[in-house]
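question for whoever is on the cluster today: can someone run the full assembly for these? two chains, 690 residues total. i dont have access anymore since they changed the login thing
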Amino acid sequence: MANNNIKRPVIMPIAPKPSQYGIDPALVKKRVAELPGMCSLKLADLFPELPPVLYPGGPDALDKLYETAKEELRKVDMSFIKADQSVNILASHHGFTLLGGQPYAILIKATRDVIEEKTGCKNIRLRAGVGMRFRETEEYIKRYELDKYFGPGKTKGVAPVDEGIPIETEVGTLYGIKAVYDADWIIHCHHTDVREVHFHRQIDKAVKPFGMSYARIETRSTYHQNLGPRAANFTARAIFESKFVQSKFAFASFLNVGPHGVIGVDADNDLYAVNDRATFIGCQLYGKIMTLFGEIDDCIAVLDFPCPVPYVFSAGVIYANFTGANTDLYDMESPLPPYTWYTEAFYKKNGKPILENIPPLNPAIKMCVHNYAWTGYPSAFFSDHIPTVVVGQQQADLFDMEPMNIEYMSHAVVAKTTESAMEFAYKTTGTDKVIIFDGAMGGLNCSETLADLLIERAPAVSERVEKELLPKWLRQRGVDVTILEKLK
Amino acid sequence: MKRVTLLAQVDPNICTGCKICEKVCPVYAIHVTDKKAKVTEDECRGCANCADRCPFHTITMVKREKPFTIGVDASKYDRDKINEICMKAHFNPEQVLCYCVGVRAEEVAAAILAGAKTPHEISSMTGIRTGCTIECIQTILRMLTAAGIELKPDPNGWQWYGQTVTAWTMPEDVKTKYNSRGFYFDEDRELLEEIARTGESN
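^ ran it for u. tokens below:
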């Protein structure tokens, strides 16, 4: 019998945001969390052993995070940075999608301030990389007023088609974005949120931007096409290990994020030490909620967040990972997740996978209701494989106008309103279990019936992850479990 | 194959002639003359790179009044030759190479057999690399190399710089050095080979 006491009123979803990649926020008339029958679950109730969070918190939570970040950053050796030199703080778009975006912006500001405080350096710039939405970080730089904070001409959104620079590595020449490396020193400002487990498999996650958001198209294509699903992230390590990058790398400044919020800041001159700690967070904290989502037997998945289709969040898990929740994404013995680009490539013209053992997209998802999500990522694979209802003709038209999604609406239908989309989904699927990917901070919004199932299964999942899965996952990644001590 | 529905449109009143659009266009459909960018409408494949990288927001993507379809019909070309190029590049002919447009290896091989000798000609003919324009560049370079075509990057453009490491060229000492960190180099190469082999009999 599920413990009903931990079911709570819905958490306010992340608000729609103005962007060239999404519809006008005014067109988002209703959030699915507002509909009858919905509730929320706090992750700390499902998994009481989760560490406490700095954010979300009280009204001063962001101020406290700024101070915590400065405290941690002051411990880092910056003695080699001279006052007359230049420093590039490197950021990535993902961070701005976490918990409303402010915590990551605060970390960037704190990193800038401590560099100036400790070294006297004034020429501190921000280079913010992107995935496939080339203007995305330009939007974030303005939204969080980083342009004003850093000063005129000091901030830049960079894209993988910008001018490149060859980087000699142990595996031959790879290519970075020139503007990323146009300073004497670089600071890698990132976070531990796992996001695309289907791509990186929590292998060298902390290093990944060197092969992705800081990299040119040639490098990113190497990752996604040349090496295979479990060797891909070596691309990032190859670049980071290069003499060129090592000659510029100063330190890493990380937001320690769990599925339930910001748990701290990790700053270190040794990126691999940060990486090991991030691997532990990624496997242990996110591993539990991912495994719990794998217990869902049938449901309607709702997209309701200002992000491209695969990146909408529920309890720190992105929709793309939920489409693979029928398998263990952390288990390195499984070569192909149900969704990753390598898998997507391996479907034939007749719609069948090339190899019989390629797992299907999560069959528990009976229908996807796309209430609000952005373009800017090739998403037709999802609408082709999962029955999808898009709310509003304007949203459908936006997808039809986007070069990466010309075929998205070829496989989806349009409903006029959120209510009619949900009614259609309830009637045609026969399930009343609903999981909402709306970025609710600290927990997740879902239907009461799904909450019952999650509450019932959480304790056993927690035990299985701790005793059985986590030791296996860490062993497969060569991670020393004693790193847990520093996390404590 | 791609339905080309979009077109880049330049506002000449804002354009400064900085030429960034020229350098990022995967199909060379935009050129600066007399300090103004001009789009060759028939050649634009609607990827939006020019619009998204213009520092002055000079370019917008508009719906074409007359959309058209591009593509190379692989069934009209020698199947053995198509398979040969694909196998040499380690691809299954039915494998998708471009996640945005959905172009498969066999269509790229057919484009090469139809006379394409450069990445931009392949993109122009098939639509590959006209969505995100990022992730499939290495597949095009691998296919051209497999067909025996020499790669010549444009010294004045940023369209692409060069071919990179693959599962088949990864140095053994590198694999040995990093295997324990969870990289499954040989196992993944075997998987990619199994995928490619499955297409041999088609």
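summary bc i know u wont read the tokens: Residues 448-476 of chain A form the longest helix (29 residues). The mean pLDDT of chain A is 96.
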